[in-house]
Amino acid sequence: MTEPASAPAPDHPRFAVGILAFCGVVVAIMQTIVVPLLPHIPGLTGATPAAASWLVTVTLLTGAVFTPVLGRIGDMYGKRRVLVASLVVLVVGSVLCAVSSHIGLLIAGRALQGAAIAVVPLGISILRDELPPERVLSAVALMSSTLGIGAAVGLPVAAVVIENFEWHTMFWVSGVIGLIDIALVLRFVPESPLRSRGRFDVLGALGLTAALVCLLLAVTQGGGWGWTSVRTLGLLAAAVVIALVWGVHELRVRTPMVDLRVSARPAVLLTNVAALLIGFAFYANSLVTAQMVQEPKATGYGLGASLVVSGLCLLPGGVTMVALSPVSARISAKHGPRTSLALAAGIIAVGYVVRYFTSHSLGLIIAGATVVAAGTAIAYSALPALVMRGVPVSETGAANGLNTLMRSIGQAFCSATVAAVLANLTFLAGGREAPTLGAYQMVFLIAGGAALLALGVTLCLPGGSGKVGGKRRSSGRTRTMPIQEGA
Prior knowledge:
8 strands; two-stranded antiparallel sheet
């Protein structure tokens, strides 16, 4: 059930879409911006390589935990209010990283930056609530694609900064951009007038947090601890037990953190499974491309490219994602988001076929990576449309937060899989141990297989027409309107 809350009408809806998309790109960039810096962190801070790896791991953990939680809080207390709070957290985290070289403070700052990824599902929910029906699909497609765009842009941006400036500079810049984002949101983005009633499910939020932390710690650290170690197996077992207890609680409480009955509907459940698989398939492209072209020529396949060149290999994919988000919206409007997602999964699989057979040419490597990015753009645009078609308008924030969470879990499993494959299929090249070409090709096969699984899951989605709630304003009144979609 929903109830209206007073809010100013969006006098500048075009600005609102662009501003929210820009916010999404910024917070997505924060997830990957330290990756090129990781090999240098031990020398810069005196930390161990294991401690340095937490600069990436902690953003994954906090992003996974806070995305569904803040989405639910936004549904209940105001989406713009929570979005602005998330951007404030991003700024605080950026400043904390900018002023210190202590690994503990850097990890704390990165944890705050990771929590800000909730901006993306919150932005999607605002656009659904505020835009006229005919503009919802295209705006949501762009907003959702910012997760992939930011990941593609973050690596080359970070590489350029590291090569040419003092490394703290990128955190100062991110903090300043975060402040600009806050000012723009407060000026041009309206507060959504829709609210869900009830009390916030504190126990549900704590249970979800505990289960996710146990699962993601086991997945991200299992390679270092050993997959059969007591810590890894204990955390996995704890995740299962906590998730079961949490599920029983969620089914009994009146206003749950996650409405499992809605989430269990085939349209929602299968969409979230597809999101996990797409997240896995996409992330492999980001993880291995830069590393592969930097491998020395002594390996027989490496190109010995610089950090900046390797980062720039992903930039065409980022540009392609921006260009294709409106195309995906048009496909979804005409044929339905299920068709868009199936097409996207097929394109990603084709991209990995290209990657498998073109590992010696920089131009063809970029072409293959761009094909994968193109499929991801269409997929990330279609996923929120599928989610919104299957949930009540009052649960949009929480539902999109859960879908974003599934993408993050897919990325976590991908990171662990890629690390395991590259660490176990090695040979000596030029006096150093390096992954074999077969190791990279194995990653491409696994990622392509994940895309094909996503295609299969998508084809199992129920058909028929769905509705995506939007807003239509007339005579000074606001009312909820549906968008009809084809199957």
